[in-house]
Specification:
heterodimer; A: about 525 residues; alpha+beta; TATA-Binding Protein; elongated; B: about 350 residues; 2 domains; globular; binds protoporphyrin IX containing FE
Chain lengths: ~525, ~350
Amino acid sequence: MRSVRAFWRWLTSMRTALVLLLVLAIAAVPGSIFPQRAVSREAVEKYIDEHPDLAPLLDRLWAFDVYASPWFSAVYLLLFISLVGCLVPRLRQHLANLVKPPPDAPARLERLPHSTTREVGQGPTEAAQTIRLALRRSQWRTALRSHADGTVTVAAEKGYLKETGNLLFHFALLSLLVGLAWGAWYGWHGNRLVVAGEEFCNTLQQYDEYSLGARTSGDRLPPFCVTLHDFQAEFLDTGQPARYVADVSYVEDLGEAPRSWTLQVNHPLRLSGANVYLIGHGYAPVLRYTDQYGQVFTTTVPFLPVDGMLTSEGVAKFPYANVPPGQTSTDPPAQLGLTGVYQPTANPEPGVPASIFPAERDPVLTLTAWQGDLGLGSGAPQSVYALDQRQIALGRLTQVGTETLRPGESWTLPDGSTVEFLGTRPWITVSVRHDPGQGLMLFGAGAVLVGLMVSLSGKRRRVWARIRPADDGGSLITLGGLARTEYPGFADEFARVVAQVGGASPPEREPAGVSNAGVRERGASARPGVDEAKD
Amino acid sequence: MAELSDTLLLVAAVIYVAAMLGYLVEFAFGTRGAVARVAMRPARELVAVGAPAGGGAFGVDIVSPVQPDRPERGGEATPGPGRTGVAGAIGVALTAVGLAVHVAVLVTRGMAAGRVPWGNMYEFVVTLTAVFALGWLVLLATRPSLRPLGVFVTGAQALLLGFAGLVLTTPAAPLMPALQSVWLKIHVSAAAAASGLLLLAFVPAALYLIRTGYDARSGPAADESAGDEAPAPTAVRFPYSLGRALPAADSLERLAFRLHAFAFPIWTLAIICGAIWAESAWGRYWGWDPKETWSFISWVAYAAYLHARATPSVKRTTATWFAVAAWLTMLINLYVINFVAVGLHSYAGLD
Ligand code: HEM
């Protein structure tokens, strides 16, 4: 029990919070050194291939999933537990302070960093009221106390907003954590490639890749459909992209008339329940294959860009080709696979298959034909972007030729079948996302910023006046001031308070003209302590 | 226009070097003048130096409110006259001229590219250094006694600009589609402003550590009473030997804190705008891209500094080391991540 309390005290101390902040910063570093699955799965696979010795160990230490790792989570969860444990009592204290009057004057006001003495004609009670009123007018919170010995004290405080800002800041940090968790639980996203002319609807089957939050089920996604009509990319002469524009139309409810939208980077399509973002683009060559029996197959194959000039690679597969009419298969199969490199602007250097410009100024498609068994029947999953290398290694798929085609050109293979390159269609990749935590994140981030500014610019300060009856029926006032935080302007403010109090400095006690505003800066130690006997 | 911009950059760098020489004369030989006086004054008073004359502005700490002080008068607010003073004033004038040319670099660059001049790493560095120089001149207007520190400011300035002009420079061009957003303007300008101000804040923070190191090494007498010459400077090695000519430790520390406190919310704003922009460009507000990760690391590091400074049991020197480490993370983000890491941000070499 004791140790639990000791641990709690340790966890909720500001020193521990500091250590945890430091650990959090350091814990975030590995995620920028090792590739992360959350950022790029392919990069992680590549890294694992290249470092077969080290990678399994790293993987076990969550080096490729740093921000989802138990140790990273432990750091920030401890930090937030510490935050709650530390800030809740502080919040309670602050609320109490807001209703409690400011504390009474300390014994020796002249020992405070700012202090002065004034003489006024009014009696103590009246003088105290005047001071209080003046302070209130400048938004000080005040408390007036009469003491048994006839002295009256006025206590005033200002700058409560600083602590309000501090609390707002820290609790807003907490709201960010909630927003993050909310999004992770109830959010989902999917990615897919859409060729111009194609439509896709929002069901999991239609995504190339998707992920669902822990509390989301795939069968309750909002039922919208999006059609890509056209895509245009503009480039500068250097090849740098200047503009991407995708013309799409969408329906949110079945039976609704389609509405159109220009989808651009930074201009997502925001639907109820999900947003559609333009992520990437490329070319999809359209190929027509006429097999030896006269059967015609037309296919549009998205090629994936391999460089900034959009040199693209891809594969076309014709598993049903070269089957005699009336039969379902042949043995051995004579299926056709085409691997290709597409250059939107052909490299003038012969034999260098690297485009020199990303737009289609001189499009060229270099195809290599493979015939045999594509291996699709084996049941093993296959990439749509590559041929099965095992089939090639086993000699079941053999190369039958290579040809370079421009749009409209055709190529006759040794068996008499022909491949025609009809042209290309653009494709885009879209990311479809729903993150219900986003609103809270935005709100929380705003609160963090406001809280921070209020807290860092706020200045907590206190001023006291002790008013004693003087022999002549007037009062002797001692004023003291204290800035509780960094506040170089406090001297001026204190001087203004003193000016509002008015009166004159008692000549026999105060060496005149120490300061232009009559403020006596510290240095009070030389004063005889006559009138302090009572404190 | 683009070539003019590149030429102006070199001109600005050269002017900053000249300014640095002016400050250097004052810093190195001005010990009988302003610097020495500032250096020997007890810590607490220095805050007063930049305040309106006669106000005697004391930033008072609750920890020890009764430490005696001597009154501060307005006359001392400016570094003294004399030959070294003239050198320092020339340094300031040259800094102002350098900044004017520097701004012209940005304006011509923006005209050449037909957009705001902060679309890639080169432009980002040129912008942040402009904020740095501007911040320095504003600071100097309110606290003239800091003038000799200009040698560090213009030194860093010339270094950063020279590196930008020689290594980072890229041809002026319009923006990539992902960067064509209002949020870019806010995000990157806030990031550049915060970086420039955090760099400015780094100067007194680092000098504070040098000064306290100097004080510790040259004996406790050095920072006690005025009039004492600092004893045995030969015993103190570089970089702490620089401390002899620096303002008192406390005043440097306060200045460092106030600059950080000013810059940190701007950095926070930059990150928030970056997240908003990332959401509209890529669909997610935060993706732990290396650039984002290091912005987060820097943010946490600066938060740790502010936190440390608000923690009573943490020494001011310890807290300040956090600030120095935090600046290191900014440098890593700017100069290492942009070159090494491949993330969504780096295709533009931006930020
Ligand atoms: C979640 C991570 C945290 C961050 C990023 C953070 C950040 C900050 C920052 C930047 C400040 C200085 C600015 C200001 O005065 O408002 C601050 C002050 C403060 N923090 Fe935190 N903090 C965190 C967690 C905590 C925790 C866990 C505690 C308690 C153990 C705590 C207690 C405080 C207190 C009491 C202050 C105000 C000190 C004062 O001015 O009197 N914070 N924090």
